[in-house]
């Protein structure tokens, strides 16, 4: 199930819900996780952060903890089978599910992180029309106190409530170890001074932005590739990381996202190499992993022929 053409963003959440209704047993979670890892490894991706909302499915007896432990098992199996990719998990908080679920997600994430460091953080996502991200600020602060990193979907809509919640969250969380998911409208400086102040805060604090080009085009939050905010941030030397969002739902791949960005924004080969190595600064993996990947990437880049 995936989108071949664009649809208003609300349609995405209907499709996610349909897909979620098909994943009901630990076996499903295992197969999905394993096959996603395989796909990314085939693309030569070396480091992957998978994010998913743990589900409690009473009919199959799958608890949220079992859901996450099954993902971890699939990651460990991929490791021991020699897949050349490091995989980490962000436990998603779905903003449609309320604060109590969010607290449970943080408790579980902390517990599992302390066991083997495969869980590294929290993702805050879900339908941006539902609820108020600012209500979750105490949860974000608490998660950071427990050493969990945070990827927060913010400023995804060009609407006042999206702006207001983004301001509130970033005012209180800008010094935490965070990245911004999408941040599609953060840079709308031309629209008014409020957005401009917000963009300045993100810029000054060097908060990395996760850019999902195909997802933005298919959800009609960005109208054409050339207008994508990847360029705005990249031109300012700000960390902006290409991601695939729902690779299946949006029928894309990380290579495709790179291809789109590189062709639309005409990066030179050297800029591309520097960009790829630079993205490592924003990953949530440990300093050792960053260093290991930096060495691997730098060596690999130096062996690539110039074109
Ligand atoms: C379009 N941009 C987006 N904005 C906000 N949340 C998004 C998203 N794309 C994906 N998700 C989040 O990812 C969940 C699906 O994976 P899981 O069932 O948790 O594994 C969606 O339900 C939504 O909460």
From TrEMBL:
SUPFAM superfamilies associated with the record: Metallo-dependent hydrolases
Similarity remark: Belongs to the metallo-dependent hydrolases superfamily. Adenosine and AMP deaminases family.
Lineage, uppermost ranks: Eukaryota, Metazoa, Spiralia, Lophotrochozoa, Mollusca
Keywords noted in UniProt: Hydrolase, Metal-binding, Nucleotide metabolism, Zinc
Annotated ranges, domain Adenosine deaminase: 13-296
Keyword field contains Zinc: yes
InterPro entries in UniProt: A_deaminase_dom, Ado/ade_deaminase, Metal_Hydrolase
Protein name per the record: Adenosine deaminase-like protein isoform X2
Cofactor (UniProt): Zn(2+)
Catalytic reactions on record: N(6)-methyl-AMP + H2O + H(+) = IMP + methylamine
Keyword field contains Glycoprotein: no
GO annotation terms (biological process): adenosine catabolic process; inosine biosynthetic process; nucleotide metabolic process
Domain of life: Eukaryota
Single GO MF annotation: metal ion binding
């Amino acid at each position: 199930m995936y989108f071949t053409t664009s649809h208003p963003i609300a349609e995405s959440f209907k499709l996610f819900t349909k897909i979620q209704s098909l994943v009901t047993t630990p076996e499903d979670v295992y197969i999905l996780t394993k096959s996603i890892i395989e796909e990314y490894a085939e693309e030569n991706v070396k480091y992957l952060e998978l994010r998913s909302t743990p589900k409690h499915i009473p009919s199959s007896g799958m608890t949220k903890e079992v859901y996450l432990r099954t993902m971890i098992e699939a990651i460990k199996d991929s490791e021991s089978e020699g897949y050349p990719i490091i995989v980490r998990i962000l436990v998603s908080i779905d903003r449609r599910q309320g604060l109590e679920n969010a607290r449970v997600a943080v408790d579980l994430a902390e517990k599992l992180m302390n066991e083997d460091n495969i869980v590294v953080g929290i993702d805050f996502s879900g339908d941006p029309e539902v609820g108020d991200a600012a209500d979750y600020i105490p949860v974000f602060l608490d998660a950071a106190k427990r050493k969990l990193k945070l990827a927060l979907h913010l400023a995804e809509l060009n609407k006042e409530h999206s702006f207001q919640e983004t301001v509130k969250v970033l005012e209180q969380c800008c010094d935490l170890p965070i990245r911004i998911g999408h941040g599609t409208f953060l840079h709308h400086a031309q629209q008014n001074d409020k957005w401009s102040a917000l963009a300045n805060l993100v810029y000054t604090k060097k908060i990395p932005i996760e850019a999902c080009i195909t997802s933005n085009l298919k959800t009609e939050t960005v109208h054409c590739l050339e207008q994508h905010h990847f360029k705005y941030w990249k031109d300012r030397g700000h960390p902006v990381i290409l991601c695939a969002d729902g690779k299946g739902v949006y029928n894309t791949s990380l290579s495709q996202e790179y291809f789109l960005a590189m062709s639309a924004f005409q990066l030179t080969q050297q800029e591309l190499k520097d960009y790829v190595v630079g993205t490592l600064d924003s990953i949530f993996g440990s300093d050792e992993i960053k260093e290991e990947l930096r060495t691997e990437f730098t060596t690999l880049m130096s062996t690539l022929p110039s074109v």
